[in-house]
Each structure stands twice: as structure tokens, then as C-alpha cells.
Design brief:
The complex is a heterodimer of chains A (282) and B (317).
Chain A: H1 4-25, H2 30-35, H3 37-47, E1 63-66, H4 72-82, H5 123-137, E2 143-148, H6 155-166, E3 172-178, E4 181-182, E5 185-186, H7 187-190, H8 197-203, E6 207-212, H9 216-229, E7 236-241, H10 264-271
Parallel strand pairs in A: 1-2, 2-3, 3-7, 6-7
Antiparallel strand pairs in A: 4-5
Helix pairs in contact in A: 1-3, 1-4, 1-10, 3-4, 3-9, 5-6
Chain B: E1 8-11, H1 12-26, E2 30-34, H2 44-49, E3 54-56, H3 61-73, E4 77-83, H4 84-87, H5 92-101, E5 107-111, H6 129-134, E6 140-142, H7 147-158, E7 164-167, E8 172-175, E9 189-192, E10 197-201, H8 205-218, E11 223-227, E12 230-232, H9 236-246, E13 249-256, H10 261-272, E14 277-282, H11 292-298, H12 303-315
Parallel strand pairs in B: 2-3, 2-4, 4-5, 5-7, 6-7, 10-11, 10-13, 13-14
Antiparallel strand pairs in B: 1-8, 6-12, 9-11
């Protein structure tokens, strides 16, 4: 049985980590990170079969890729809280000589990171490559990837979508963070690929599911359903509705907090909305 | 000047195809990806022999590079194949992020490099690829000279763990290096020892340099001829040792002057051993349609241009 209360406490702690990390280096991307905290808590502590004793090749375990690498704070916090590297190392985020680069990278050998991402539109191709490797090896574990909804404007994604269905890569589950915001405004205003992403993905031959990224039962149940659909000849795509900045009241409702760090006052105001957890701050 | 026997006349891309086919038998982790140019890249033998390890990606090179990086993470040794133009400039950021910076064991195999692609014209004749690739940290850049060497290089890079750019071409050229050679990445090959001038040549220009060496010998000029098949890492010791001996250097390559082999050698010599250098390369220009021979002549890459460069550099000694 899923312990939803524990997942909730974990995601609250991840959110506290995110805010303190971006505040600590006065830069980074809190908005999308906060919005995906519930997803990361569910994935790393419930859904995925993964090992914190990190193996680059990901053989005999599920592999996760973050394509929208700018939400690295949520990724780093989930990895540290899962035991991939010491939690206090979160304090080094974006600072000189840190393994926690502004965007995920492999050069510093941070456990958990398999590829550099953040130059948008490239993660799904990489995830498909690893999914193919697993198929060749008869490894029944899955490949998961998260991408942003603004990111879907990059053309390489559509090459990857086309490839996946043509080659029946049915051991991959891609989730899109459908928060409707990107740097210059709403995704509808900036490049209106809009509300028919589902129809487009279906037309590209993908199985498409929907879930609420702020409801643990929706995330866990949808992921279980998605898993049951793997191995049937189709790649799986999940539209995850989230709110950028959730649940910090003054960070929600616009794209303003996409890439801005809170000042001291804003940090305290935000943390006041995220109660201290039993896991404790780094 | 030593005489070199021409075993046959073959395209270097077929050397790649032969090497890949051999790897298919010896290396179960080698996989091949191609962007709708299987015949042009001579990957059809591998495709036929190992359909389970051959991935047709369609005309989608960016996706191909990402797939290769993901396969490499899963302990495969991916060889990507398309024209040099679409292997580099078209997918530069994908290579930079997912292969070079992420240091993945991907082999980017690029055919139809340079003007000898011929009649298709400048849209397809990349002359900047060596520069683009050598600027990337972690990337090894190899440009073999004939069929046998390309086959040997293809096999060698599977045994090297890291990103590699392997460049070869379309036209049939003299095949003169040993069929049983072992290819050593980063190790220059001295084809002829001489005392008056050193020619450092790469790729198709190696045979042109041999022809120039024959003609120069008749003029009483002793040419030291070195085949630089690996542009990065450059065999610094071989370059400096020979330049110290001859005190005059000519570089020869089917590439832009900017960013090519000559550029690397000038950078090294300027720092370590200032030496007169003449560069046989394309001078800041795109190519055009024509036969390979016509284009090599027009763009200053034939034997006569190497001879003229030697004569110029000797006057500067």
C-alpha cells in the first residue's frame, strides 16, 4: 500500500530544499521545480525500481531522464533524499566546484545523472536510446522521462515521437509537465501548440494518459496503469497537469517564478507555507 | 622517395563498411544507426548481417545522436552514419551536450566529407567538420587516408572508450597502406623520411602528397612525409621532431584552413618551435558542383598545389 502521507511529507521537504537551494545561490528555476515535486516524490519513492548505489548503465533497474534540465533543484533533492549522494551537498548547488551544476551534467560524476540536459528537446531521444538498449538486453525494466510543455516546441522531440512509434519502443513512459508556462509567458501565447498535445501524440502513435501532478493517488495510479500498458507495441505519454510554483501562493498563477530566486523575505514567506518535516532541512 | 604500391583503388567509405561488418562479428555490443543513407555509407552489409543491431532512424539526425548517447549509456557501442555535413554542423548541439560534454562512447561516422563529394555541390560538401569536432572537449578526430586505413580505424575506435569523430569520403582513391595494419589512435605514421621539408597530410591528401613527393624528388628535394590520421589528439612529438629536422612544413587537407589540421600544427609550432608553414587547404570558401578532380584542382588541393607550397616554404627557410 502506498503511504500517501509519507509521500506528502517528502514532497514538502523536497520543496523546502528547492527554495533554499535557489535562494542559496541566488539563481535557478524554482517554479517548475516546485510544480514537479509531487511527481518526483512519487517516482523516486514509490513508482520506480531504482538503486541509489548508482550504476551508469542502469542495467536491471528503471532509468529516469530529466529532459527539462532547468528544474534540476527538484531532481537533485529527490536524488539526495533517495540516498544517491549526501543531503548536505544540496547546499553547493550552482556554486563553484560543485557536483550540482546549474543544469544536470555528468562531468562532475554526480550519482544519479546519466546525461547532460537543459539544452531543450534532447532528453527523449536519449531515453529512447536506453530503452532500445534494454530491449536488446532483454531487460524488462522501464525507461522514464520528464519533459516540459514549452520544451515540446523543439523539433527534435517530434523526431523522437515519430521514431518511438515506428520502432514500437513500448518500454518507455514519457511524462510532460503540463503547467502552461514558459519563460516569455504562457505556452499558448508564446507558441500555441496548446491544448491538443494529446491529439498530436495520438496521431504520432503514442498511448496517451492524463494525470493530476498534485494528487499522489492520481500519479501513482496513472503510473501503474501506464506500466500495465508497456510491452504492447506502443510508447506511453502522460500529460501531467501541474501548477508552476505550487503550492506557494505568490509563486503560482504566472510564469514569473520560472527562473527567479526568492530574496530573504520571499524565502521566509514561502517556507512558512511548507511546514518543517521529520526529514529535516539540509 | 620511397615507392608505394597501389593495391587497388577504392573509396574510404567502403573501408568503413568493411570495418563495421567485421565489428559486427567480433563485438556483440556494437550497434549501427543510419539516417536514410545506408547504401551511401556502405552500412548495408552490417544491416544484412545484424538486423537486430541496426537501427534505421530516417531523416532525423538530431534524434539519431540522442539515441546513440542513450544506447551508449546502456553499454552499447553505437556507430552513427550519415554524410559529414549532417553528422556535424546539423547536429552540433546534440553532439556537444549528449556526446562530448556527457562523454559518451559514441562513434560519429561521417562520409562524403569535403569537396570530393562532387556534383551534389556545396550544400553537401562540408569543409568545416574537422574544426567543429576538434573544438569539442573529449572528442577524438580521425581522418584516415585510404580503404585499408579506414577499415582499421573503424575497428580501432570500437576498442577505445569515448566519443570519436571518424571522417571519410566518397571517391575511389589509391589503397596503399597495409591490409593487416593495426591502427593506433593519435600516432602519426611517417611514410617517408626526408631532410628538406615535412609534409603533414591527412585523408585524401595523403596520396596527393605522395605524388608530390615523387615529383619533388626528381627536383632533388628530400621530402619527409607524415600521415596525420588523427587530428585530435595530435601527435605533438611527431610534428615537433620532424619540424626540428627539416625546418620547413607544409600541411595538406581537404578542409578549410580555419580549424583544420594546418591550424592545429601552426598552433603547436608557434608555441614550441616557430617554423615556416604553408597550408594546402580551402581558403575561406564554399565548394561547388563538379567532378572530384576538377574541384580538387580548383580549390587548391591537388598535387600541383602541394608542390607549389613546398617550393614556397623552402624559400622561407
Amino acid at each position: 500500500m502506498t503511504d500517501f502521507a509519507k509521500l506528502g511529507e517528502l514532497s514538502t521537504q523536497i520543496r523546502r530544499d528547492i527554495l533554499r537551494m535557489v535562494h542559496g545561490c541566488k539563481s535557478g528555476h524554482p517554479g517548475g521545480s516546485l510544480g514537479c515535486a509531487d511527481f518526483f516524490a512519487a517516482m523516486f519513492f514509490e513508482v520506480m525500481n531504482h538503486r541509489a548505489e548508482f550504476n551508469m548503465n542502469g542495467n536491471n533497474e528503471d532509468v529516469f531522464y530529466l529532459s527539462n534540465g532547468h528544474i534540476s533543484p527538484v531532481y537533485y533533492s529527490a536524488l539526495a533524499r533517495s540516498g544517491y549522494f549526501p543531503i548536505p551537498e544540496l547546499a553547493t548547488f550552482r556554486q563553484i566546484n560543485s557536483r550540482l551544476q546549474g543544469h544536470p551534467a555528468t562531468a562532475e560524476h554526480l550519482p544519479g545523472i546519466r546525461i547532460a540536459t537543459g539544452s531543450l528537446g534532447q532528453g527523449i531521444s536519449v531515453a529512447l536510446g536506453t530503452a532500445l538498449a534494454k530491449k536488446m538486453d532483454g531487460d524488462k525494466n522501464l525507461v522514464y522521462a520528464l519533459m516540459g510543455d514549452g520544451e515540446i516546441q523543439e523539433g527534435q522531440n517530434w523526431e523522437a515521437f515519430m521514431f518511438a512509434s515506428h520502432h514500437k519502443v513500448d518500454n518507455i513512459i514519457v511524462t510532460i509537465d503540463f503547467n502552461g508556462q514558459q519563460i516569455d509567458g504562457s505556452t499558448l501565447e508564446v507558441m500555441g501548440i496548446g491544448t491538443d498535445i494529446e491529439a498530436k501524440l495520438k496521431a504520432f502513435g503514442w498511448e496517451v494518459l492524463q494525470m493530476n501532478g498534485h494528487d499522489f493517488s492520481s500519479i501513482v495510479n496513472t503510473m501503474q496503469h501506464a506500466k500495465s500498458l508497456t510491452g504492447k507495441g506502443k510508447p506511453i505519454f502522460i500529460m501531467m497537469k501541474t501548477e508552476m510554483g505550487y503550492p506557494v501562493d505568490f509563486m503560482m498563477g504566472s510564469h514569473k517564478w520560472h527562473g527567479v530566486a526568492p530574496n530573504d523575505e520571499e524565502l521566509n514567506k514561502a517556507l512558512a507555507q511548507l511546514p518543517v518535516t521529520s526529514f529535516g532541512d539540509y | 622517395m620511397k615507392k608505394f604500391d597501389i593495391q587497388n583503388v577504392k573509396d574510404t567509405r567502403s573501408g568503413f563498411g568493411a570495418g563495421l561488418s567485421e565489428l559486427g562479428k567480433t563485438h556483440p555490443n556494437v550497434v549501427a544507426l543510419c539516417a536514410d543513407l545506408t547504401g551511401s555509407l556502405k552500412m548495408d552489409a552490417f544491416q544484412k548481417e545484424h538486423p537486430d543491431r541496426f537501427i534505421q532512424v530516417g531523416i532525423a539526425e538530431a534524434n539519431m545522436i540522442g539515441l546513440a548517447a542513450g544506447l551508449a549509456i546502456g553499454d552499447k557501442i553505437p556507430f552513427t552514419g550519415t554524410f559529414a555535413n549532417f553528422s556535424t554542423g546539423r547536429v552540433y548541439d546534440q553532439i556537444r551536450q549528449s556526446v562530448a560534454y556527457s562523454n559518451k562512447n559514441v562513434k560519429i561516422c561521417a562520409s562524403h566529407a569535403g569537396v570530393t563529394l562532387g556534383e551534389d555541390g556545396a550544400t553537401h560538401q562540408i569543409l568545416e567538420d574537422i574544426g567543429l569536432m576538434k573544438m569539442l572537449p573529449n572528442m577524438v578526430v580521425i581522418n584516415p587516408c585510404d580503404f585499408n586505413q579506414t577499415k582499421a580505424a573503424t575497428i580501432a575506435i570500437a576498442n577505445y572508450n569515448g566519443p570519436v569523430y571518424l571522417r571519410f569520403g566518397r571517391p575511389a582513391v589509391p589503397n596503399f597502406t597495409p591490409a593487416d595494419q593495426t591502427f593506433e589512435i593519435g600516432k602519426a605514421i611517417t611514410l617517408n623520411e626526408g631532410t628538406d621539408v615535412t609534409i603533414f597530410a591527412t585523408g585524401h591528401l595523403v596520396w596527393k602528397a605522395i605524388e608530390a613527393g615523387y615529383a619533388l624528388a626528381e627536383q632533388g628535394i628530400s621530402v619527409e612525409l607524415i600521415n596525420i590520421h588523427t587530428i585530435k589528439p595530435l601527435d605533438n612529438n611527431a610534428v615537433i621532431t620532424s619540424a626540428r629536422k627539416t625546418r620547413a612544413v607544409v600541411t595538406a587537407e581537404e578542409h578549410q584552413m580555419n580549424g583544420g589540421l594546418g591550424d592545429s600544427i601552426c598552433q603547436l609550432l608557434a608555441k614550441e618551435l616557430p617554423t615556416p608553414v604553408e597550408m594546402v587547404a580551402v581558403n575561406d570558401s564554399f565548394g561547388e558542383s563538379g567532378t572530384p578532380d576538377q574541384l580538387m584542382k580548383k580549390y587548391g588541393l591537388d598535387t600541383e598545389h602541394i608542390i607549389a607550397a613546398v617550393q614556397r616554404v623552402l624559400k622561407r627557410k
